[in-house]
Inverse folding.
């Protein structure tokens, strides 16, 4: 789930005609707007997911232009809080009361259908759940949201509330916003009451799922040019870029932020599917001698091209000692294709790791055979496992593998020659070297293409525009194993990782 | 003999409509399903009505398809996550009784709306975020097995019903019960083949999916296996998040489910509030923790194992007793 800061949540509320306190947003490097609210004003640093902003100095009340300039400059500069997306300058109002309002998801139960949950309290501030005496909890249907009259009737059960109709209208607007943007959480805190009895949102925030964001709302949820204030490593950012230019399947990668205990084996992992991830977690979760350097999930029919690129990231982790790859044992991804990706990554990465590889699924035998055939040319030791051997047995081999970092074979040396044909398959390029294939027969690399994309016509390589390259790496694998390296593939990384 | 769909959805012989059949995924998975034995009668892709895919006629809507083929009673959706809600409602409105929603990443609000929508209809759905359902009577919905040859080789008729929240583990638990001479840890502590050529075999695999608001729950699936005469034991993969395992335990405790159950419970080290590969595995309250679920299951007399390879010997033990 991702967090939406106040100034962007305001945009959503405003679109649904929910009244808001006057405010102007200033981003770093931007000229101060002339139409500022009247003094005094509140300066609010905009950081997604930040809590307790007042006590952390991220919300400041200023009464003069000098104070505004000084504090604005501080909040727009990098600080203990990181880098703010900007500062919201909001009007300082005399409020007669402060309330709390929130919408969230109710996941239901065996007896109760799921839906939305409206929370309202006549006391603002944090810890609203604990104030049951003043808290209204109202379940509502996302399919048939309640009319203001129904909300008003619920509000009348609360003591100390007079503005029933106005609050009901406001809450109706909140529910509309919550549903329109398929949010997970929408909070207004405080919801302020003015002397004339009118109410407005003084502060607000939201949480959302990436998959719920519509294209037309992308500018609010993912503003262009916004510097990321997320907790993300450089390698994680590379995987995000890989996912962006190749959205096939799942490509999840997150590095462990904890420090390994002394003497623990540092294991880089390529886990395939939620099941693979869970098997590894159950195997090693209680062990202090194994430090899992990263979580990962490559699954859901991704190509070998994508597997290779993510593996290059996984292998690039500093201080990793061993690579461990496992899925649930019955993967959808063709395991021979996956093995080709692992072999290529181990060949081409400047930091290959001794590897423990468990293949399970279609062509799992071929996957293991591949590594048997190339064992003499690998730069690191590799051990493969059938699906019937579970990760708990693989773990026992980590100690031995982690100690073996010596080069055990000669790297594959490709023959001389220049490519005559380059086939562009973004993010890859297939190079064909005619000098390396002088025989009067179809080269193994072309025969290995499972879709018929690569064709052989009068002793020359061609492609079939009706067929598709699925990025399986079978052509290059066959060229290296059974041909004369007549086809090689270069796969671009979005950024240098090594 | 009728398969598990009779008890899940009141469907004895599935006649199926494929949403998204004109897309890459829909086309290839439809071939897998048909080769396995599923009777696919029509496809549906808005704007592509009148076309044919591998001889299957395509319609613009489920209503048009049902009008042409009134025997249609089920559907599988190979559509993007954002299109699932609309397509599923279209299928329910057309009167289809059983749906499989394969897409990952369906917005939670859409899942909640669907749950409410079908509550006033006779339809049920599996998923979202599921690899589907396979019945060894000869039909398959979704993508289990990856290819029909692989699926036929690995999923053989027998006595075990599989329920799982993970796609990979659905496939694994199903296939390994059909593997002759499967090695594993035995009850006496030794390691080796658990059985010979006479593997326990499988009645059906039901993947309820990895999302927080599933249509058919683990308890719904267990209730169907309870009624299914082929099934003698249930092998279940559960994890943190949602209350599905707790509900299953309660039903066993109350005597609603009497057949033996073995649960491999994942997520022992999952921290509260942390996102998982399965969106539904996130822990939201105390009842959804691994410890709470383990206790509930054990209190109900359900066997809980913490290693996946311990499932098979535990199932064997239950079969010997039954």
């Amino acid at each position: 789930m991702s967090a939406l800061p106040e100034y962007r949540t305001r945009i959503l509320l405003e679109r649904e005609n929910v009244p808001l306190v006057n405010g102007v947003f200033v981003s770093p490097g931007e000229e101060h707007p002339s139409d500022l609210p009247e003094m005094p004003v509140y300066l609010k640093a905009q950081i997604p997911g930040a809590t307790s902003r007042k006590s952390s100095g991220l919300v400041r009340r200023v009464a003069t232009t000098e104070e505004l300039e000084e504090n604005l400059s501080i909040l727009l500069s990098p600080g203990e809080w990181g880098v703010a997306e900007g500062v919201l300058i909001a009007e300082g109002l005399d409020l007669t009361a402060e309330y709390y309002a929130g919408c969230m998801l109710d996941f239901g139960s065996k007896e109760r259908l799921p839906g939305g949950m409206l929370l309202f309290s006549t006391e603002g501030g944090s810890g609203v759940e604990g104030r049951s005496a003043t808290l209204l909890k109202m379940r509502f249907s996302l399919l048939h949201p309640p009319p203001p009259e129904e909300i008003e009737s619920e509000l009348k059960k609360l003591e100390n509330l007079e503005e029933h109709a106005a609050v009901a209208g406001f809450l109706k607007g909140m529910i509309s916003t919550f549903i329109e943007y398929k949010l997970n959480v929408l909070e207004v805190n405080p919801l302020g009451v003015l002397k004339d009895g009118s109410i407005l949102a003084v502060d607000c925030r939201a949480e959302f799922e990436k998959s719920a964001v519509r294209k037309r709302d992308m500018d609010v949820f993912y503003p262009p040019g916004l510097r990321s204030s997320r907790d993300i490593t450089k390698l994680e950012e590379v995987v995000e870029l890989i996912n962006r230019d190749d959205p096939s399947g799942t490509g999840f990668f997150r590095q462990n932020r904890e420090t390994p205990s002394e003497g623990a084996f540092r294991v880089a992992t390529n886990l395939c599917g939620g099941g693979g991830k869970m098997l590894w977690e159950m195997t090693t979760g209680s062990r202090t001698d194994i430090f899992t350097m990263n979580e990962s999930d490559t699954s859901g029919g991704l190509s070998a091209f994508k597997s290779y690129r993510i593996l290059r990231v996984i292998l690039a982790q500093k201080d990793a000692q061993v690579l461990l790859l496992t899925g649930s044992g019955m993967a959808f991804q063709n395991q021979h294709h996956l093995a080709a990706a692992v072999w290529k990554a181990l060949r081409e990465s400047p930091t290959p790791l001794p590897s423990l590889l468990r293949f399970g699924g279609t062509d799992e035998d071929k996957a293991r055979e591949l590594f048997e055939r190339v064992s003499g040319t690998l730069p690191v030791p590799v051990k493969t496992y059938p699906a019937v051997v579970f990760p708990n047995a693989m773990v026992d081999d980590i100690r031995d593998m982690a100690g073996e970092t010596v080069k055990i074979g000669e790297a594959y040396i490709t023959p001389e020659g220049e490519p005559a044909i380059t086939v562009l398959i973004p993010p890859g390029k297939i190079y064909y070297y005619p000098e390396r294939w002088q025989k009067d027969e179809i080269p193994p690399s072309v025969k290995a293409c499972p879709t018929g994309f690569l064709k052989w016509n009068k002793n020359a390589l061609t492609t079939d525009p009706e067929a598709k390259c699925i990025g399986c790496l079978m052509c290059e694998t066959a060229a290296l194993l059974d041909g004369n390296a007549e086809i090689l593939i270069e796969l671009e990384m979005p950024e240098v990782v090594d | 003999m009728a398969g598990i769909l009779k008890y899940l959805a009141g469907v004895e012989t599935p006649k199926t409509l494929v949403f998204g059949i004109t897309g890459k995924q829909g086309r290839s998975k439809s071939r897998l399903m048909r080769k396995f034995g599923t009777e696919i009668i029509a496809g549906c892709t808005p704007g592509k009505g009148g076309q044919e895919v591998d001889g299957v006629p395509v319609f613009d809507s489920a209503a048009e398809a049902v009008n042409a083929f009134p025997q249609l009673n089920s559907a599988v959706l190979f559509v993007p996550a954002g299109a699932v809600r609309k397509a599923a409602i279209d299928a329910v409105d057309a009167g289809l009784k059983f749906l499989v929603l394969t897409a990952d990443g369906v917005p939670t609000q859409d899942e909640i709306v669907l749950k409410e929508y079908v509550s006033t209809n006779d339809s049920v759905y599996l998923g979202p975020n599921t690899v589907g359902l396979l019945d060894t009577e000869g039909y398959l919905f979704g993508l289990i097995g990856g290819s029909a040859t692989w699926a036929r080789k690995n999923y053989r008729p027998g006595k075990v019903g599989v329920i799982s929240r993970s796609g990979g583990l659905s496939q694994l638990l199903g296939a390994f019960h059909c593997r002759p001479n499967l090695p594993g840890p035995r009850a006496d502590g030794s390691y080796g083949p658990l059985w010979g050529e006479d593997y326990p075999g499988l009645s059906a695999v039901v993947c309820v999916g990895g999302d927080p608001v599933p249509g058919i729950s683990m308890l719904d699936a267990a209730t169907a296996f309870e009624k299914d005469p082929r099934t003698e034991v249930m092998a279940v993969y559960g994890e943190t998040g949602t209350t599905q395992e707790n509900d299953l335990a309660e039903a066993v405790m109350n005597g609603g489910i009497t057949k033996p159950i073995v649960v491999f419970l994942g997520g022992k080290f999952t921290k509260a509030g942390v996102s998982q590969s399965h969106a539904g595995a996130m822990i939201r309250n105390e009842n959804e923790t691994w410890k709470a679920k383990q206790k509930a299951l054990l209190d109900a007399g359900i066997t809980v194992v913490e290693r996946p390879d311990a499932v098979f010997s535990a199932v064997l033990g239950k079969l010997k007793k039954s």
